[in-house]
Here is the input.
Amino acid sequence: MFRSLHMKLVLIMVIVMVSVMAVVGTFLINSVTTYHIDNFLSQMTMVFTPQFISTLQDTEKQAQNPPAELSAVMEAYSGLIGVDEYRAFYILDAQTGRYLAGSDDSLADSLTLTPNILKAMKGEVGEDIERLNEYFDVAVPINVDEGSGYVVGVIDTKQELTDFNWNLFTILIRVILFGIFVAVLLSVFLAKTITTPIERLTDQATRLSEGDFSQPAEIYAQDEIGILTQTFNDMANTLQDNMQTIEDERSKLNTLFTHMADGVIAFDRAGRIMHINPEAEKMLGKTFDDTSVYGDVFPDLVISEDDMAADGKYIEIDYMANKRSLKIFFAPLKTGEVSGGIMAVLHDITQQKRLDDARKEFVANVSHELRTPLTNIKGYSETLIDAQDDIDPETRNNFLGIIYNEADRMTRLVKDLLTLTKLDHDRMEGAEQNVDLRAIIDSVASSMAIEARNQGVVIESDLPSELPRVKGEHDRLQQVVMNIVSNAVKYNVRGGKVGITASAEDGQVCVAVADTGMGIPAEDLPRIFERFYRVDKARSREKGGTGLGLAIAKEIIEFHGGTIDVESREGRGTTVYMRLPVGEQVKADA
Ligand code: ADP
Here is the structure.
């Protein structure tokens, strides 16, 4: 209860008040007592002058009844002595101390022999006053000798002083009570003026701690608390600015973290996930929550912080997850000087690895494709050189024909490779022409006619009279149609047919080349567009194929925004569909 500033202030005020009044009261009562004693003594000094004492002594000597006459003399001075109901004079027998006469006969029973009386009974004036005694008195010896004499004295019961002091005391108590009341009121008011702004500041601080910066604390006065409030508001503004800056940075980091192409996972010391970005979950093919730990993320990958070396270097690990090849960089996370866990950065290298593998396979394929004709050329030419004139002209011609064909195959291979390289680098060069596919199909059909006839195959084309033009590059599209029709002839059977049809629908021109040839086994269908993939290597070679025709066709068609599909039934035939987007139609012939 006394913890609040409010109550403390009240208590302090009351204590101060009571202390001040106690000191003042004591001082007042003390002064009043001293005044009374001094007053009594000065009165007595005025009365008991040496002349008055000698008058008393003379009276005693001459009197018949000394106590009565002494009493009468004293009576005459009673006004000066200040005799009243609290103060009385008395005449005592100096030998026995017995009360003989006086202003108050009740003293006969109540008067005790005070030290002053005893002193006077020995012949000395007794005028010592003890503050704490219940009375003040003086006693004067009158002709005190051995066996005779009287003691004349005055005694004051102090009742007047006591009454006065009591009155003073009650007044003081009332003043103290009133003072306490005023002090309480004052302290309540003072406490309110101090605590109200402090309470407001406390409320404001609570709001700040909850992140509410909307209202500054109100300033009521330019006193110390006003300055404190102003400083507090300034501090809150700075804090708000700093928090905004931190929040902006955090949001930037968060955006970066969420949208970055690499996966990032941070684990705390206990291995729990502190942060994980969507990319990391995508790469690992799983989702994680707050309870997930390192073991859930990388079940079969054990690393320890010690692996990361004392200088905080990262380690690099190749890891397979979710059918992806990942390169993971592990680095220790530091918070201050202490290690705070581990950070893992995941880099998806699946595509890179695939490209790498494809590149290696491609180089191996090219080498292999070039080696075969080279070996043949070298073998036959060596034989021709070694045999010199021993070889008959027919065999020589035959060998030379083989060398020529192999060189021709190599030329085609190199040409196809160059085409592919060009397609890889010069994307859609000159693709702005409007190409007439009808003209291309007619030209390909007629240029393949002799070859087809040699193979015992008939090429039939059935084209609509109006076919929209497509946007693209004439020569490349011609190459595609040539590759497809030449395959349909090459892989056909004697007496077979090649049918070329074309149609326009949904903004596309579709050209279908159907043959009645050997067809393609279902398991090979998905791979026939791969570079160097051939269903029957011997047959392809024999027919002069390079294994690049369909790959080139697919690249070109896709560069033109089109699609190419193959349907085939083994032993029955194959149909290749090419779909190309229709270009802007112009009246004039392109
Ligand atoms: P190639 O130079 O060997 O013809 P392609 O890339 O043109 O290479 O074709 C790949 C393979 O697909 C061919 O080797 C062949 O086995 C098969 N193929 C392509 N077209 C046909 C078709 N019309 N009928 C049967 N097989 C085909």
Q: What stands out?
A: The CA atoms of residues 334 and 400 lie 75 Å apart. The chain is about 50% helix and 20% strand. Residues 483, 487-488, 491, 515, 517-520, 528, 533-536, 540, 545-551, 574 surround adenosine-5'-diphosphate (CB under 6 Å). The radius of gyration is 66 Å.
